[in-house]
Amino acid sequence: SDLPLPQIEVFKTGFNQKLQEGREKLHQMWLDWSRRSSEESGDESSAEPEEMESLALLMACSITQQLQTTCCKILSAIQGLPSSFQDKVKQSLTTIEELHASFSAANSFQDLSSSVLTQSQRKLAVIQEYMEELLDYLKNNTPLSWLVGPFCPREEEV
C-alpha cells in the first residue's frame, strides 16, 4: 500500500483549507453587508467601510482565483476517474469561475446582491461535499496515472 496518499492528504488539506477560508470570508462579508444595510443610520464609528469593503472584495477575488487554479489541477489529475467525478469537478470549476467573475466585476457590496453572497456560501458548501466524495473515492482507488504520472512531486524527493 505504497500509494501516494500523502499527496491526497496534501491536496485535501490545501484545497479544503482554501475552501473553508473562502466560506468564512464570504460569510463575514455577508454579515457585514447585511448589518450595514440594516443600520444605514450614518454612524461612522467603524473602520473606513469602503476600505474594508474593497479589501474583502480583493480577498474574495484572490481566493476564488486560487480555487480556480486548484480546480483545474484536480481536473487534469482525475482524468480516467468515473465521469461522475469529472462532471462534479467541472461543475465546481464553473461555479468558482462565476463567483470569481462576480467579485471581479463588483466595485462594492452594493454591486453584489445579498443573494449572490448567500448563494456563494451554499455553492462553496456543495463544492466541499463534492471534494469530500472525491477524496473518499481516492482513498480506495488511486488512479494509476498518479503512481507514475505528473502528479508525483519528483522534484521534492530527497
UniProtKB/TrEMBL annotation:
One of its GO terms (biological process) is positive regulation of triglyceride storage. It holds the Pfam family Perilipin. InterPro entries: Perilipin. Keywords: Lipid droplet. SUPFAM superfamilies: Mannose-6-phosphate receptor binding protein 1 (Tip47), C-terminal domain. PANTHER family: PERILIPIN, PERILIPIN-RELATED. It is found in: Lipid droplet. GO terms for cellular component: cytosol; lipid droplet. Transmembrane segments: none annotated. The gene is Plin3_1. It comes from Corythaeola cristata. Belongs to the perilipin family. Its main location: other. This is PLIN3 protein.
